[in-house]
Amino acid sequence: MTIADRSPRPPETSTTSVQVPPSARTADAVWRRALSGSWVPITLATLALFAVSPVIAPGSLDAAPLLSMLPFASVLAIAAAGQTLVVQQRGLDLSVPGMIALGAVMATALPQQYGWNPWAAVVAALLGTTAFGLLNGVVVGRLRIPPLVATLGMNAVLLGTVFAIANGTPSGAADELNRFALARTFGIPNTLLIAVVAIALAAVVAHRSVVGHRLSAVGVSEAAASVVGIRVGSYQVAAYGLAGLCYGAAGVLLAGYTKTPALFLGDQYLLPTVAAVVLGGTALTGGIASIAASAVAALFLTQLGQLLRSVGWPDALQLIAQAIVLILVVLLRELVPVLLRRRATRRLAAQAVSR
Amino acid sequence: MTDTESITQAEASSERARRADGPTAGPVDQPSALRLHGITKTFPGVRALSDVALDVVPGEIHALVGENGAGKSTLMAVASGALAADEGLVSIAGTVLETASPDEARRLGLGIVRQDPAVLPDLTVAENMAIGVGYRRVGGLRRAVAWAAAQLEPWGMGIDPTARVAELSVEQRFIVEIAKALALDPRVLILDEPTEHLSLEEVQLLFRRVREVVAGGAAVVYISHRIPEVKEISDRITVLRDGRVRGTFPTPEVDESQIIELVVGRKLEAVFPEKGSVAGTVGEAERLQLVGLSGAGFHEVSLAVRAGEIIGLAGVQGNGQAELVRAIAGQQPSTGEVRIDGRRVGRGGAAAAAAGVVYVPADRHREGVFLPLSVGENISAATLDEVAPAGFVRERRVLARARDMIERLSIKTPGPRVPVAALSGGNQQKVVLARTLLARPRVLVAEEPTQRVDAGARVDIYRILREAADDGAAVVVLSSDGVELEGLCDRVLILSRGEVVRELTGDEVTESAIATAALTATTVRARESVEHPSSRVRSWLRGDHAPAVALAAVFLGLGVAVAAVNPAYFSAFNLNTLLFMVAPLLFVGAAQQVVVLGSGFDLSVGPLMGFLVVLASYWIVDGGNLYVGLGLMLAGALGVGAINGLLVTRFAISPVVATLAMFMALQGLYLQLRSTPGGVIFAPVSELIQARVGVVPIVTIVGVVLLVALEFALRRTRWGVQLRAVGSQDAAAARLGIRVRLVRFGSYVVASLLVLPAAVVLMAQIGIGDGRPSISYTLSSVTVVVLAGTSIFGGRGSFIAVLAAAFLVQQILNVSPFLGLSQAWSYWLPGVVTLAAAGLYAVLRSGGRPRRRRRGAAIASPGGVA
Disulfide: which of A7, A264, B163, B504 matches B492 by Cβ 3.0-4.6 Å? Predict the structure, then answer.
C-alpha cells in the first residue's frame, strides 16, 4: 500500500479563503478610521455649540463677544496645529508652555530691553522656537529619548531661557506689533486671518503633499516607513521643528494681542492644545491626523470657555471643565468602536446560531 | 493517477492505522493523552481549521506537519486553551476542556512550548520560570534561583538563573521555555517548531529528553516542517493542509517524498512556477553583488545574484541570515560593499531603496504594512512620487493604481479605501508585494514571504516572486521552510555563524539536502557567554544598581566641590535644609517610579500634592481637627489614584492623557478652593513634621527606610515581580496568568498614596494652604526617575537608584545660589539634567541586544492580549 493510489475525489481548490460577510474586524477598522482624523464630528459639535450659545447666554453671538473670542481661538488653533504634528509622530509635546512663552518673550523683550526692531524680533522669535523644536526632534528622533521625557525636560530649559531673556520681568509688546494684532482687515481680525491662512496652508501640505503622506507613514509605523525607504529620523525632526514654528507664531500673536504678556503665559495652553488634538480626532496612536479638525476643535474649546465665563464660571472651574471634556471625548472615541464591535460580534454569533 | 487521489488513499490507510496498529499506540481503549474532535475555527476571511480530529496516545511522539499557514499553530492554540474553537471538543487525559483556558489546560496536564513563548525580558530567568510554573512548585520566590538552576542543569548551556532574560541568546531562551514546560511533568507536551533555533548537538540533546519524557508515559506532539527530523523522532505523523487533516500515518510506513507530497497537496510543480535556471531566463549580468559584507551577526559575506535568479538563504535560525538580509536592504548597519549593477549602494534604507532594493520584511504587522492606512495608500507607499506630480498626491491615481494591482494579484479586499488591517494575512502580504512590484525592484529581498499566509495566497506569492525575477530582478529569499526553498530557488546558500558555508545548485536544491546542510554546518555555535572583563563592566553598567553608585558619587563630588568654593555649604543649617527639602522628592520620586515600573506615567503627582495641602489647610489649622485633615488627605489621594487607575486600565486611555487631564483638574480644584494662599497650618503640626535627629530630619529617615523597603518588595515579593512583569511585556504577563489590569490599577493607587507623605512634608515647608508650589514636583519626579536609570518603558528600575537620584536633584537645586547662579538656572538645571541623563542611558543601553520593542509603550494596552 502506498499513498499514491487513485481515488475519485475532485481536485482540491488551492485556497481556504472563504467569503466572510463584512466581519466584526472590518467594521471595527472602518469605524476607527471614520472616527479618527475626521472633521465631521467636531464640526457638528461646534455648530451645535454655536447654536445653543445664544440660548444659554443671550447676546453671546453678538459681534463684540465674537471679536474678543476669535483672536484667542486663532492662537489656540495655531498652537494645536503644532501639537497635532507631534501627536501624529506618536509623541505628546509637553514643551508647549515653554515654546509659547519663548515666542512671546522674544517678540516683546528683544525690542523693549535690547532695542531690536520689532519685526526683526518677531522673525527671531519664530526662528528661535523653530530651533528649539528641531532640537526636540533631534532628541526624540536621533537620541531615541521618549518624547514625553524629552519635551518635559525641554520645557524646563525653555522656561529658563525665557527667564534669562526677560531678566525676570515681563515686557510690553512694541506698538507696531500690538496695533497689527488688534487691527482688522475688511472687518476680520488680523489674528484670525493669519490663523486661517496658516492652517489652510498646513492642512493642504499635510493631507495632499508627498511630505505630508510620508509624515503620516512615519507616524503610523517607523519600522514600516523605514522599510519603504523613508528617512524616518529626518521627518521626525522636521515635524517637531514645524511644531516649534507653530508655537512660536502662537506666542507672538498672543504677545501682540495681550500687549504685556505674563512671563509664563504659555502654561494655560498645554491642556487645550492636547484637548483640541484629541477632539479633532487625531489618533493618539499616531499617523492619522487632521490639522484642520484640530483648528475647529480649538474654536469649539474657546467658545465653550467664553460661554462658561459668560455664565459666571471662574477660570479655575474652566480648567476642570476642559479636563472633563477631554476625558469624555477620549472615552467616547474609545468606547464607540468597542460597542459597535460587540454589536457586530453578537450579530455574527446570532447568524452562526441560526445557521 | 493524480496527486489528490493518492492523498485520499493515504487518508484511508491512516484510518486503518489508527484503528488497528498504531506502532506504540497500545490498546485502543486506553484513554488518549490528547484528543481533538471536530475542531473548526474561522478567522475573518480565512477558515483556519475545518473539522480537525487528532488522537495522541500516551507514550507516543506524534508529529504534526504542514506548511506555513496549514493551521498547525492554530490547532495547538486551541488544544492548549489559548484560543476558543468555533466547534469541536478538546480532551486532555480523558477530561474535556470545557472552556478555552490555558490555566485549565495546564492543570489537566498539558505543557506547551510555543514558537513565540511568553517571555518577560526584564525579569530574570528564575523569576520567569517561577511565574511560568507557579510559585508553589518552586517553593517560593526565595528558592527560585536554586530551583531554576536545578532544572536547567541537564541542558548544560551555562544559563545563569539570575541573568535577565533579555540578555540571553535565542536558543538559551528556548531552552528555558522547554525546561519550564518539562518542570510541570506534563502528560502531553506540545513542542512547536522546537529545533528552529537549535544546532545539531542541541537537537540531539532535545531528542534524548523527549524520548525520556515519552518513556515516562507522557505523550509528545511535535510540530515541525523539517521532514527529516520528523522521520527521526516521531512514531506517527499527522499531515495538516489548508486546515484539514490529510491523514495520520505510522512513521516507518511513509518516506520523505510521500510526506512532502501530502504536505504540499500536489506535485511541487503545481505550486511553484518554473525556475529561471530551468527556463533559461536567468541573465548573464551579476545584478547584486556583496563584497565582504559584515555586520552584527554575519561577517565577510561575498556573493552575487544575477538578474532573473532567485537565491535562497537557509540555516539554523539565528546564524545571521536575517541580519544579512536586513543589511542588504539598508535596515541594519554594515561594512563592506553592496553593489547593484556594479555601482556601490550607500548606507541606510533610503539609499538602498533609491538604488532599487525592495525589502519584504518578515514581521508583516510591524514592518510590512501600515495597518490603519488604506489598501490604496499602502500600495503606493513606496512610490508616492509617481502619483504625485509637483509634490502633491493625486488621490485618483492612487486609487486607479490600487484597483489595477488588486485585480492583477487577486487581492481579496472590499475595495482600495479599506484599511489594510481588515485584510487577512495572505492578502496583506499581497499588498506588500503589490507595493514592491510597483517599485520595479532591481533587487528584491524577501524574508519569510509566506509566513502566516494561507495556502491559496502562497501559490500567488510564489508566482509574484518569480515574475519579479523574470522582469529582471535579482531575488533573495530567506525562508525557514525547506520545501519552499526547494520549489522556488535556483540556488540555496547555507549560513552558519554568519558565514556562507554551503551552496546548493540545480538538483542539489532539495528540502532534505537543505536541512542536512544547515544542521551539519552548525555544530557548536560560538557562545557569546564568554566573559570578557570589559563586557562584565558593561553588563554591570547596564544593570539596575549601577546608577545608584554613580549618582551617589556625583552627589558627594558636587557637595565637596561646592563646599570648596563656599564653606558655608557644609554648615549644619544648610545640611538640614538640604535633607529636609529632599524628603518630598523621595516620596514623589518613589510614586512616579511605581507607575513607570508598570509602564505607565503619572503627570498628576505634582498638583496632587498641592491639592492635598489645600485640603489639609481647612482642618490642620489652629482649632481644626488633625484627624479629619489627615483623613481628607488620605481620601483625596486614594480617590485620585483610583480615578487615574480606572481611566488607564478600565477605559484604556493613554496614561499621559489621563493624568494630564487629572493634572489640570487638580490644579483647577485647588485654585477654586484657595485662589490665594490661606489657612495657616497649625504650628505644632509643622514643628512635629520638621523634627530631627541631629541635622537629619525624621521624615527624611522615614523616606529612606520606605524606599529601601520598596526595593526589597520589588525584588522579593510577588507584588514586585508582577509589577515588573506587567511593565516588561503586558501581553506576555497576561498569558502567564498575571492580572495585568489589576496590577496596573494598583500601581496608580500606590503612587498616589506615596504622594501623601510628600504632601505632608510640603505642607510643613510652605506652612499655608497654597497649591502652586507643588506644580514643579511633576517634572522633579520624572527627573528623579530618569536619572535613576529606570526604563521609561517599564519593567526595570531600582528604588535605591531613586534614592540617590532624589538626593542629587536636590543637591543640584541647592547649589545654584551658592554658586551665585541666576534664577533662570533653577529651570535650566533640572531640564538639562533630565535630558542629559535620558540621553546617557539611551546610549549606554543601546549597546545591548537589539530589542524589538513597540514604541509608544507608554500608551497602555488594556492587557489580556493573547
Answer: B504
